[in-house]
What we know:
There is one protein chain. This protein is of the alpha+beta class. Helix content is 20%, strand content 38%. It has five helices and 22 strands. The strands form four sheets. Strands 2, 3, 4, 5, 13, 15, 16 and 17 form an eight-stranded antiparallel beta sheet that branches. A five-stranded antiparallel beta sheet has the order 6-22-7-18-19, with helices on one face. Strand 20 (293-297) and strand 21 form a beta hairpin. It is globular. The chain starts with a helix and ends with a strand.
Amino acid sequence: MSLKRKLTISALTLLLAILGVCGWIWQRHGVYGFNVLLRHGGTYWIDLNADDPKLPPSMRLALKNPPPAVVPGAFAWKEIDEGFEVAELPVIAHDGEVDRILLNRIDPTRFRFVVRNAADGTRGLDEWERALPKAVLIVNGSYYDAKGKPDTPFITEGEILGPRSYDAKAGAFVAGKNTAGIRDLSQQGWQEAFAGAANAMVSYPLLIGDDGQTRVPVKSRWLANRTFVGQDRLGRIVIGTTKEAFFSLERLAEFLQNTPLELTVALNLDGGPIACQSVRLNDFHRKLYARWEAQVNGNQVRLLRWRFPDATLAMPVVLTVERQH
């Protein structure tokens, strides 16, 4: 066989392999998959020990057996606009601060809440900011599927997205004209909870249910940056994001129950490196890029990484806050 023919066959084989990979990505992930690869090269897990220095200090501390008990530190609300307050709640262990929750407390009669989806994978926190100049708060929302579409029932500005058949037992965030709140779906179906809503999304688990108890179903040592949305005794919406990845879901629920936030109900949103937060209101600006997520089994830790470490991850589902029209 001539050299030219060998090169031709090799090139065709390589082309077919590339086309096969592209076809697999398209079938499994659609356009979202290609944009994720372009954005950060895709994600993967690395295996570490619980004391590995590649883990941030807060994670290594949380992986001690048992993890240290924590209490809320001193904090104060600051009103940056009528009906919109911000604060930072320190998470204190015996050796000092181990995490910090970036808080926003919002009057739903003065601000509107919108859930949004960018299923093509082109929008991280920076891109959402540019696309939504009127959004005063942007955080990640609920869960999404392999193609970047909502993985739970979802309404965005009256448009229904996500699965139509879904067995929801946790909670939902529901917003309409001058109203917003959390619905405990142990007492009603999500279809009933969504009735009349302009924006809504199912998520899980309920960190605090209507009865004041946590609904986190199982104990887990899975650690990640966390975002939650809650409602306090005066009906204000409280949205918080952790700066670090100290909390498992169970321990976050317990911590929130013991804070002075007076939450009557709180719903977990998706977590990990997508749990970012942006606040842009008057002269106040806050921006957090999340980075951490780890599966933990005994002393073995699997840390989520991506091939372009300086890139930020896409946020296909977000919850945004805007001034009332």
